[in-house]
Design brief:
The chain is of the alpha+beta class. Helices cover 46% and strands 19% of the residues.
């Protein structure tokens, strides 16, 4: 669910704009827009030669809720759960008060762009990291909610996956309010929008599918069959068939269960690839030996013929002399 156009226009800020907090008096220079969601817009901003992510909205309750989430994240072990909170303030624009908060700017590449650049071999590695972070989040009573590639950043050069935009984060047991259809099990008719770990884990399966279908696709017909057929058609998704099946069916209750299956799938895939390479190398080595034997045999025959010719020629000369 995206923010409506009215709110987006109200929160629209041009690059170069100086946002000054009413209370703390800190000045932030807007560099560029980073993204937007249901509750506001996020900008890259600079203060004292340091970059931050600044989120602005005209909805003070949603901003307060997100700030509380970020603050609670800081108490959770593991820095990948979300950006660290810096400060909150209000900005007066055209005589209207806009609440905003400032958080850590996580620099890196978007999940899908990283996979396109580095290859699908990285998908499982990053998903393992993501599931570890989700396990910590769920243990502390939250689900991420609006989990999608746009909210996942891969830091460079450490290659760590980080979660950004915590606007959809919801306390376990409540109803998910912010979501994106492709990653929402409710849209596919494969579960409710109740905030529980299995909701996030369904979204993780859809992130894996999205890695092979960057343009995504719409629901047509029976959802489960459509999704599994999509998996079948992409070779890079084959190692994750079991994982996707279980997540889509809601069979995972804990992130670490899913993580174990992803790890096993990666391990099996590496083993199969190693065996395939070894088999190819064996065939290649045998062919080389055969060629070498054939070459050696040919060389021996040539030398033998030369010896015979030399003997015959010697006998011919001897007879001529005698």
């Amino acid at each position: 669910m995206m923010m409506n156009n009215t709110m987006k226009n109200l929160c629209k800020v041009s690059p170069g704009t100086i946002i000054t907090g009413k209370w703390n008096k800190h000045h932030y220079k807007v560099i560029k827009e980073l993204g937007y969601g249901a509750n506001g817009m996020v900008y890259l901003a600079e203060r004292n030669r340091q970059f931050f992510a600044l989120k602005i909205s005209d909805n003070s309750s949603s901003i307060t809720s997100e700030m509380n989430i970020l603050k609670s994240f800081s108490k959770v072990q593991g820095s990948a759960l979300g950006p660290s909170f810096v400060e909150a303030d209000d900005w007066i624009k055209d005589r209207k008060l806009f609440p905003f908060y400032v958080m850590e700017y996580i620099e890196g590449e978007s999940f899908l762009h990283f996979i396109r650049q580095k290859g699908h071999g990285w998908t499982g590695v990053l998903i393992l990291q993501l599931l570890s972070s989700l396990a910590e989040l769920h243990k502390n009573g939250w689900i991420f909610g609006d989990l999608k590639p746009e909210n996942l950043i891969v830091t460079i050069p450490s290659y760590k996956i980080r979660c950004v935009d915590v606007g959809g984060t919801t306390l376990i047991g409540r109803s998910v309010k912010e979501f994106t259809e492709f990653f929402d099990r409710g849209y596919w008719g494969l579960g409710s929008r109740k905030a529980e770990p299995s909701y996030d884990l369904f979204a993780v399966a859809m992130v894996i599918i999205n890695s092979a279908y960057p343009s995504r696709f719409q629901k047509k017909g029976e959802s489960y069959s459509l999704l599994m057929n999509a998996v079948e058609q992409k070779k890079e998704l084959h190692p994750y068939k079991k994982v996707i099946h279980r997540a889509v069916k809601g069979q995972y209750k804990h992130a670490l269960e899913m993580r174990k299956d992803v790890f096993d799938a990666l391990q099996q895939n590496v083993t199969e690839n190693t065996q395939a390479r070894t088999s190819r190398q064996t065939v290649s080595t045998r062919a080389q030996i055969k060629r070498k034997k054939s070459k050696n045999k040919g060389l021996a025959e040539t030398i033998f013929l030369l010896v015979i010719v030399s003997i015959l020629y010697g006998l011919y000369i001897y007879n001529q002399i005698m």
